[in-house]
Amino acid sequence: MKTAAIIGGGVIGGGWAARFLLNGWDVRVFDPDPEAERKIGEVLSNARRSLPGLGNVALPAEGALTFHATIAEAVEGAAWVQESVPERLDLKQKVYAELQQHCAEDALIGSSTSGFKPSELQEGRGNASRIVVAHPFNPVYLLPLIELVGTHVNPVDVIARAKEIISGIGMYPLHVRKEIDAHIADRFLEAVWREALWLVKDGIASTEEIDNAIRYGFGIRWAQMGLFETYRVAGGEAGMKHFMAQFGPCLTAPWTKLMDVPEFTDELVDLIADQSDEQSGMHSIRELERIRDDNLVGMMRAMSANDWGAGALQNVQDKAREGEAGLLSHIDQIGDLSKPVLTLNRTVPLDWTDYNGHMTESRYLDAFAQSTDRLMLLIGCDAEYIASGGSYFTAETHIRHIDEVHAGHSIQVRTQVILGAGKKMHLWHEMYEGDRLLATGEHMLLHVDLATRRSAPPAEHVEAALVKLATAHAALPAPDGLGRAIGAPR
Amino acid sequence: MKTAAIIGGGVIGGGWAARFLLNGWDVRVFDPDPEAERKIGEVLSNARRSLPGLGNVALPAEGALTFHATIAEAVEGAAWVQESVPERLDLKQKVYAELQQHCAEDALIGSSTSGFKPSELQEGRGNASRIVVAHPFNPVYLLPLIELVGTHVNPVDVIARAKEIISGIGMYPLHVRKEIDAHIADRFLEAVWREALWLVKDGIASTEEIDNAIRYGFGIRWAQMGLFETYRVAGGEAGMKHFMAQFGPCLTAPWTKLMDVPEFTDELVDLIADQSDEQSGMHSIRELERIRDDNLVGMMRAMSANDWGAGALQNVQDKAREGEAGLLSHIDQIGDLSKPVLTLNRTVPLDWTDYNGHMTESRYLDAFAQSTDRLMLLIGCDAEYIASGGSYFTAETHIRHIDEVHAGHSIQVRTQVILGAGKKMHLWHEMYEGDRLLATGEHMLLHVDLATRRSAPPAEHVEAALVKLATAHAALPAPDGLGRAIGAPR
Fold this sequence. Notes:
GO molecular function, one term (chains A, B): carnitine 3-dehydrogenase activity
Number of domains of chain A: 3
Pathway (chains A, B): Amine and polyamine metabolism; carnitine metabolism
Function (chains A, B): Catalyzes the NAD(+)-dependent oxidation of L-carnitine to 3-dehydrocarnitine.
Largest sheet of chain A: 8 strands, mixed
CATH superfamily of the largest domain in chain A: NAD(P)-binding Rossmann-like Domain
Strand content of chain A: 15-25%
Organism (chains A, B): Parasedimentitalea maritima
Catalytic activity (chains A, B): carnitine + NAD(+) = 3-dehydrocarnitine + NADH + H(+)
Low-confidence stretches of chain A: none
Oligomer: homodimer
Helix content of chain A: 40-55%
Mean pLDDT of chain A: 92
């Protein structure tokens, strides 16, 4: 049974709750804050809006969310306990003492701490081997990074199991080799924060100018390649060693300056808070969260298309979820060939909507094209086949929009082969949300030789599979709307 | 006359050359390196592949690129001279002395330096008031950020003119308020670089793990909101002051540690170079550049759709370029109403292609939808009208793919109104690359009331404009393929 306990709600605990819930886990929450349910509800509502459509395959059904009055009750049956209480070591250790009295002996305990090392958390605990740092990044429901930090008291199988659970909820466990203050990423955040405070304090730039210096320049670079790979590219064909020889020593001069820490005075706090109000005060935090999530989803989906970075991680997740979503890879796996085939099962992502507040027209064709790709895969026209020089090109498309659909809604496409013979493949896609018909797509495709770019017969095994499916579908009634022209009477 | 002189080629000078050229400037290059022409050619080829399709409006015709044997010849007629020679102050000052003897008195001189302050560059120059720092970021042809740094000797009009030229080539001039070592962004890069060297040296993480810690977490956040706005969101409704009170002091503890600089030994260089080879050695630098550019274009275009960050900058550029690209905003601006209207003039962007190596089918509908949006705009169905509650929804679409097109190619759509009366709008789009017909799109749209989501008559001024256009187009012959159904004989 997949059950997680969330000890401490708030933005981080709520983000963990959303990750587990939307990946099919039951989630049991303990948080003494009377506002905890509302706060977690707000995070969940952001997560439900953005995460399910991030990938191209439907997530499992949501788990059950329950709130509990005691730690003892919350950890019941939990395989993973995530602690996100305030950053006070005495408080954390008190929480571990209590929860370890009640949780399963083999339950794993992850701490969201950024300030403590795992050895500090484990100190004095009887069952210390089950405690690790699992440090997430806000928004936890979208960003995949988890810094997983253990000590020598954590056996190999505990780390392996922790990685498995973190991967299973769509995240990336970065196993930090040795514990260190602030783990990895926060050390960078801190270094940049320190420089930024100096720049504002000394009147070199405002908070907005600093944000622009980041997001119009290296921020976009880092989003996809990080630091070292970016510099490798900058170094050119001569390689990383050349880059370091050229730029490494130059960097030492400024290193000797401004290494001290700006004093954290009220004046500095006011200066920064005022500039931040001027920069972003026209948006509420809720608005900023949604703007941020729209951007993160759009950028991660752009990287998915390139199978790179955070997008490549998402593609691995999608692939792993296909079976559960009912999406097959070969017609031999189809039980009943006589019915239209499920070729798409996904959630409408945030970047598929337009100014009219619904899924925009070109994304209907995007969805139908994904269905066509699935049908091609089913008949053996897969990546390997395409690399060998054969593929199908769409010659003609006719889409009828029957009803609207919105971001976050679940859509399915079922596909009927109207004709499959020789070079021709004539498909009929129907898009549904549950029983509600949203659109139909009629498509004529031709098999082509990718070298000559002209139509040519498919390989025998591809044609045989297509004919098999077309023959089985021939007994189906002709779909309503087949062969219609625009403006023709119904 | 728009002429720029590029003094010093290489990756940075080449990037500047590409920015100017692709925005219609003539570019004159001086670089004594016998390989300069090849090196700039390689950067240009990357730039031509990625930049023209970044926005949704065609760029002007490319300027002329010439190479010159002397600085004197290269700066002839240049309004902007960009210096990107090696980072040696004596060399830079020698270059300025020579070029200021030959360039126009009012020519602006921008330096790509990251290591020198403008006061250092200006020192001892007779015409120092024309010299500024204009520090770009690699790849210069895609990243919009320019740190523009001057001193008290630069008059206000010099800075204003520099901003105008930088904006005119699609970049963002960030005017740094006071000069400081390493300007703004490089201070952050340096701080992170220093921390990263420690982490690798101490065996906490490999170069690949560090890159993953960045690109699966805060790197994606920073790409769209930078540092301060990200923290403002993290602070929640309580605001930036609350965030600083909560997290500011916590950060001071690690600040006291590891503030010294790791020694730049051969061992450290080897360690990092070896790890980098393991991480990225399977890709050549050229491959990595193209992967990077694909990602940057995809992410920036995702942000354009949200009108945010670097994407919002791009949208401003697009808007400014519409007129030159022949795209109008109201039918009253159309000279000859009797011909099909130009509704799209753009370059196929990198993210519009698929595994078959050509523009993917859903992007044809994306392009046609942009054409429909343009036609709506022309008849007065603009953002303001839509906000008031009326819009057109597409009911039916029929696309015929006539020929292939590839990323980087220029496409135009011309639109004929087949029927425009009452709630109905029947459009015929033809997509061309030059004279080559690529596809036709036939679309039936209905005017809707956005409150009821049901069809309803448009406002009088919208209907009148549509009828005017439909009446003028009624004399055109019926397009070949109009009203065709899929599979119907021609």
